[in-house]
Design a protein that fits this description.
Length: 375
C-alpha cells in the first residue's frame, strides 16, 4: 500500500530566489529549478537548485524520497545505468523518482523550487531505474531479473497502479542487475501510442509495445534489433524519429517508428569517444555524454533522419569525471550534466552553432548521483 504524506509537510528546507516573474497559482514563487537525485543506498534524496537567469544554479533544498538508492552490479560512475530515473511532469507539476534499493517510486508535488512528498508506492518489480509519463499514464521500468514495465494512472497529483498492466521483458539478469545488460530506459512515443524500452546488451534491441486508449500495453512487444550494440537511451526528434544513444560503438542511431511497432534504421554515426550512453535534446541539437572520455558531443538530425556531428569532431565540451544523465533548461539555453564520478553538475550555455560554453559547476554532491530533471 502506498505510504501517503500530507501535502503541506515539506521533506526539507528550501529558500526561494528571485529571477523569474510571477507565481505558480499556489502561493509559491514561479521558479525554474533543477532536480538531482542522489541515489544514496542509505537514503535516497532529491537536491533542488534554483536556476538563475544566466543558467547558473543555487542550492534551494534537500528532500528525502522515503526510499533507498542502489547500485547496479559492476557499475562505476552510473550506478543505475539508466536514463530517466527522475522525471518532471509539467502539466501536473509532479516529480517522480525511482528508489531502486527499495523497489518503490516517490511522487512529489512541485511548487516553484519546493517539493512536497505525496506518496511512496511499489514500483511493480525489482530495481526500478527509469520512468516515462504521458498525459495521465506512467510506466516504470524495473531492471532486475527478467525485467518488466508496470503502469500507473496519473490522477489528482498521484500515481495509481493500473491493474494487469505489468509486462515482462523476458531478459536474463540478476537483481541487482548487471549494469551492461540491464534495460536502460522506458519512453513513450510523442503521441503516446507506443512505449519503447532499450535492453542494452541483454538483447541489443529496442522493444516497442502498443499502448491502448486506456493505458494498457500490447501483450508482447515488437523486438527491433539496434543498428549498433548496447542501445542505452533515446529521445525523439520533432518529426517522431527516435534518436538513440548506442554505447557499444559510441554511436547515435536514428530510426523511423511505424505504427505497427517496427523501427527502421535511418543512420548510424559514431562520435569517436568512449561510453556514449546518455542523450538529450536542447535548442535543436542532440547532446550525448561520453562517460569514459569525460566529454560531450553534439549531433544534428536532418528531416530525413540523417545524423551529423557538430563541428569537425562533434566534441563540444569536456566535463568533470564520468558525465552521465543530462537535462536542458525549459528554454533550451542551458545544458546541465551530471558528473557521476566527480559528484558534480556541470553547467553549459548552448550556443547558436551547437557549441557549449561552460558557465560553472555545482560540486560536493557525492559520487553516485544519477537522475536529473528541470522544470
Amino acid at each position: 500500500m502506498a505510504a501517503l504524506v500530507a501535502l503541506p509537510a515539506a521533506a526539507g528546507a528550501s529558500t526561494a530566489h528571485d529571477g523569474h516573474d510571477g507565481h505558480d497559482g499556489f502561493g509559491f514563487h514561479a521558479q525554474h529549478a533543477v532536480f538531482v537525485q542522489t541515489d544514496n543506498p542509505a537514503g535516497n534524496q532529491v537536491l533542488v537548485y534554483d536556476e538563475a537567469a544566466n543558467g547558473t544554479l543555487t542550492p534551494a533544498g534537500t528532500y528525502s524520497t522515503g526510499g533507498l538508492g542502489a547500485q547496479a552490479a559492476g557499475s562505476v560512475v552510473d550506478h543505475l545505468a539508466s536514463q530517466g530515473s527522475l522525471v518532471y511532469e509539467a502539466a501536473q507539476q509532479l516529480l517522480v523518482a525511482v528508489n531502486a534499493g527499495s523497489d518503490t517510486v516517490s511522487v512529489f508535488a512541485v511548487r516553484g523550487d519546493r517539493l512536497f512528498l505525496r506518496e511512496v508506492l511499489p514500483s511493480g518489480g525489482d530495481f526500478p531505474d527509469s520512468i516515462a509519463v504521458n498525459d495521465h499514464v506512467a510506466y516504470v521500468l524495473n531492471a532486475g531479473g527478467a525485467g518488466s514495465v508496470s503502469g500507473f494512472r496519473v490522477f489528482d497529483g498521484a500515481l495509481v497502479p493500473l491493474p494487469g498492466s505489468t509486462r515482462s521483458l523476458g531478459l536474463a539478469n540478476t537483481s541487482p542487475p548487471n549494469y551492461l545488460s540491464s534495460p536502460g530506459q522506458v519512453a513513450f512515443s510523442p503521441d503516446g501510442s507506443q512505449l519503447l524500452v532499450t535492453t542494452k546488451a541483454s538483447t541489443n534491441a529496442i522493444d516497442v509495445f502498443g499502448v491502448s486508449w486506456n493505458g494498457w500495453l500490447s501483450a508482447a512487444p515488437v523486438v527491433n534489433a539496434s543498428s549498433a550494440p548496447v542501445p542505452f537511451a533515446l529521445v525523439f526528434a520533432p518529426n517522431g524519429q527516435a534518436v538513440v544513444a548506442q554505447a557499444g560503438n559510441s554511436s547515435v542511431g536514428t530510426y523511423a517508428l511505424a505504427g505497427n511497432g517496427t523501427l527502421t534504421n535511418l543512420s548510424t554515426l559514431p562520435d569517436g569517444q568512449t561510453a556514449l550512453c546518455w542523450i538529450t535534446g536542447a535548442d535543436g541539437f542532440y547532446y550525448v555524454a561520453n562517460a569514459g572520455s569525460a566529454t560531450l558531443s553534439a549531433y544534428t538530425v536532418s528531416p530525413s533522419g540523417v545524423a551529423s556531428l557538430v563541428g569537425t569532431t562533434g566534441v563540444v565540451a569536456t566535463t568533470d569525471a564520468g558525465p552521465i544523465d543530462m537535462a536542458a533548461s525549459a528554454d533550451g539555453s542551458t545544458l546541465y550534466v551530471e558528473a557521476g564520478g566527480a559528484g558534480a553538475v556541470d553547467e553549459f550555455h548552448v550556443n547558436a552553432d551547437g557549441s557549449l560554453t561552460s558557465i560553472g559547476s555545482v560540486t560536493g554532491l557525492g559520487a553516485g548521483i544519477e537522475g536529473i530533471a528541470a522544470s
